[in-house]
Amino acid sequence: MPVDVARMTKVFERPKSLTEARYTYCPGCHHGIITRIIGQTIDELGIAERTVGIAPVGCSVFAYLWYRCDAVQVAHGRASAVATGLKRAKPELIVFSYQGDGDFASIGTAESLHAANRGENITVIFVNNQIYGMTGGEMAPTTLVHQKTTTTPDGRDPATCGYPIRFSEIIATLDAPVYVTRQALYDTRRIQDCTRAVKKAFQNQVDGKGYSLVEILSTCPTNWRMSPTKANEHVANVVTQVFPLGDLVDRG
Amino acid sequence: MERSVIIAGFGGQGVLLAGKILAQAGMDHGLEVTWLPSYGPEMRGGTANCTVVLSDAPVGSPIVDEPDAVIVLNRPSLDKFEAAVAKGGTIIVNASLIDREVERKDVVAHYVPINDIALKLGDARVVNMVALGAYLRATNTVPLDAVKQAMARALEDSGKGKFVPMNDKALDGGYRAVS
Amino acid sequence: MAERQLLRGNEVIAEAAIRAGCQCYFAYPITPQAELLEHMARNMPRLGRTFIQAESEVAAINMVYGAASAGVRTMTSSSSPGISLKMEGISYIAGSNLPAVIVNVVRGGPGLGNIAPSQCDYFQATKGGGHGDYHMIVLAPSTVPEAAVLTTLAFDLADLYRTPVMILADGLLGQMLEPVELPDPIDPASLPRKPWATTGAVGRDPNIILSFDLGPENLKRMNETLQTKYREIRAREIRYEETDVADADLVIAAYGSTARIAKSAVRMARAEGLKVGLFRPITVWPFPYDALRAVADHVSTVLTVEMSAGQMWEDVRLAVAERAATPFYGEMGGVVPTPRNILDEVRKHAR
Fold first, then answer.
1. Could B33 and C179 be called an inter-chain contact, meaning their C-beta atoms sit closer than 8 Å?
2. CA torsion, points B102, B103, B108, B111, in degrees to nearest 10?
3. CB-based contact, B167 to chain C, within 8 Å
4. Is there a contact between A64 and C208 if contact means CB atoms under 8 Å apart?
5. Which of B20, B27, B63 lies closest to C261 in CB terms?
6. pTM above the 0.90 mark?
């Protein structure tokens, strides 16, 4: 039977704020979902023409390729400082930084913490996959205890490597941030929750409310040496035990 | 013509401010000037000095090997700078605090009881202006009135205008103390 | 004519930056440039401009990177140890073709060194410091009035060539007072537009600021573009000053504070009948090789004087290329040469 396309409603499409460029991410990695959520948010808020994205160093180094908006590619760990400079120079811009765990919570510790402490009116997307994906699967500040990485071949030993840092909880101790939350993407319900959280984090900036941080528990099937399905289960069953989901601060 | 002076003493004796006021007065009087402080981590209590150069031509070095004059407000400053003064130069010695005479015979020393004059005026903090007044009389580098005006503006600009009359008297007191 | 004011070098650089339309300033406290930061803290907010005391030098230079991306005039300042921390950001700014002004009020090094005047960061300023094949334009003021002029120029050159420009001062220049006529303020709104800036992709394709390309051929092209720019700068922007060079037999090569001290030594030498002159690079990058070589062709000696172990001396020897003798006199660790010290060196070599 012929299909009458004219009578169909399109319920899902590529966000207009995303380009046609193909992702460079591995199969099963959550970066692609996060990128889409951000693109959709930019569409829904109608802010593409005043948004500037900040691409970090790491697997998402090419982040500037995916969005149909202005972008700045910056040094490892410095995204929150660059975001500060951009936003202060042009407060009418919507500035978001996209940072991995090594970027945000290790080499960029000072920049991340102090941008939050100043309450910069920016949106930070903090992607926590507990590993350095791009450089070959080394230990991240968020690597779980006993987790094997290429620099903790026998597993992360807290006696010599410390424990996984709950950086969002640290930021939540500060007085300035308006919204700090931890989200995940291992099933459709979490994806919907995360989408709402990302939208809120952007909306807060549009409304001039101040600093918003969305930490997203992400997968790295390649370096975790798991199938994408197993990786999702690992986030649901193991990672969330160390990094519990939910809002840590909501002063919006 | 180029004239140079080093003003030296304890931190807190106002030697840096005295130098600034002299440099300002020199500039107002149409001269080229530089003011260079010694600077260190101690905000109070250490030793301090500054070098002021006044010239009718652009100043080259703000650092001077042989100053035409030194104003020494304490003994360590005399010990440090006596040898440096140019032959025929001037030393203003704070006789209230310095218990020795200038050893060199090829310079002109003026012994001024700077602290005593300041205390007699009622305020030990004006020792720097007493010293500056004495220097002006001894060297004629800049007219006393130009320095008074520069002093008044410096104090007024920093919200200390009520201290102008006292500092005015201090400049006069120092000026009169040198014959 | 503007009013003559007696001002401190650090404050003059700060005020000249404000008058040049600097809209965002970011820095971290360090001696001997604290007065610069404090002047900005007092004055930027009341003008509706941005002042942030950053959490670190690293953060400050990256805030500059962000503000420069947004197309505004922006500056940071520090002293030697802090400038070392900024080197990563400076490399990114150069690689991304962003305009920015960096002030280094140099102090004694290496390591923590001390807070006394020095010129020991010449290599770092002129030969790189950060990673990669890049240069900054480096302007070396010798007097407080010149610091004002060169600060204005620094912002203009940064915008013109989309490049970081460093003002290479030292503790002596930063701390001293001298009469200065400040330039008239520029209205930032009157400055030329920057169509490349990330100000929101309205009616145009997105602008991307980056220093990155994984493809060697592409990155090579980006490097070639940089080198082309550096050739243009070398052709157009070299600045230097000659004093009493025409009949000289010995010329002192010195920059910054040392050059003004050397000027007094030249006067003293002339008074003794010695034919001595002064060659002062104002841009230490690009270095005035050709001009100094022309001088070397008619003198017997080019005496380099620096507050370092002989960093500019290398450029002097490259320029002179054995056309004249090239002795060296340097002080280190915050020791400042006096006119007499320099005169003594001149006497050793003058005929």
1. yes
2. 20
3. no
4. yes
5. B63
6. yes
Contacts of B among chains (3+ CB pairs under 8 A): C
ipTM score of complex: 0.94
Q: What amino acid is encoded at B90 in this protein?
A: T
Question: Within a domain: residue A4?
Answer: no
Nearest CA distance, C171 vs chain B (angstrom): 9
Q: Tell me how far apart the alpha carbons of residues B73 and C280 are, in angstroms, rounded to a whole number.
A: 38
Structural domain including A64 reads 24-140+168-250
Taken in order of first residue, the domains within chain C and their CATH numbers are 4-201+223-236 (3.40.50.970), 240-349 (3.40.50.920)
**What does each of the 351 residues of chain C score in pLDDT, given as a tens digit?**
578 999 999 999 999 999 999 999 999 999 999 999 999 999 999 999 999 999 999 999 999 999 999 999 999 999 999 999 999 999 999 999 999 999 999 999 999 999 999 999 999 999 989 999 999 999 999 999 999 999 999 999 999 999 999 999 999 999 999 999 999 999 999 999 999 999 999 999 999 999 999 999 999 999 999 999 999 999 999 999 999 999 999 999 999 999 999 999 999 999 999 999 999 999 999 999 999 999 999 999 999 999 999 999 999 999 999 999 999 999 999 999 999 999 999 999 987
CA A132/CA B118 separation, integer angstroms: 71
The 3-state secondary structure of B129-160 reads HHHHHHHHHHHCCCCHHHHHHHHHHHHHHCCC
Write the CATH number for A68. 3.40.50.970
The whole-angstrom separation of Cα C89 and Cα C184 is 31
Contacts of A87 in chain C (CB under 8 A): 66
Q: How many domains are there within chain A?
A: 1
B abuts A (3+ Cβ pairs < 8 Å): no
In chain A, residues with a C-beta closer than 8 Å to the C-beta of C101 are none
